[in-house]
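hi! just following up on the protien thing from before. the input was this:
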Amino acid sequence: MRGIIFDCDGTLADTMPSHYEALMTILHRYELEMSEDRFYALGGWPTERVAELLIAESGRTIDAVQLSVEKESLFHEMLHLVRPIEPVADVVRAHRGKLPLAVATGAVRPVCERILTQIGLAGSFNTIVSSEDVERHKPAPDVFLEAARRLGVDPQHCRVYEDTDPGIEAARRAGMEYIDVRTFYTPRRVT
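and the predicted 3d structure came back as:
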């Protein structure tokens, strides 16, 4: 292993319950629905992509970008509640400055940066690859391949820390070793 790549939400930071609560508030406003199980199954998808899926299923005309902006704004108000997932944060602390480290996230960069600041890991990574940096999102391998490229590490020498099925599939498709955070950490469920 010559480089480590971390997902952010649900891997470095216990954000998923707050993301779910914010999304449910906004979906209620638009009279859309989504189960908590489905929310976790789509983990790693950008909010706008989730919104597009739900809107298409509803057969209604709703602005997915606006819905996404409202959800992210509400999530920002809840950031003070976010805590690090300590076993993964410990990996960052142990390897910071010793190995190239990256964050590869389906989130937008400003949100990811605020989360990293909130959990005390800002400045720990050589690069951050966000949803704006790639065209195809998890389970496509693009975000992890771009992170490896920026780190200057061959993908086969990278280890990924992830917490979702789409993220694990993306790491597998990238030819990277991966650790499924769900094997040792379970986020709080809201319902």
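The beta strands are 3-6, 101-104, 127-129, 158-162, 177-180.
Residues 24 and 33 are 8 Å apart (CA to CA).
cheers
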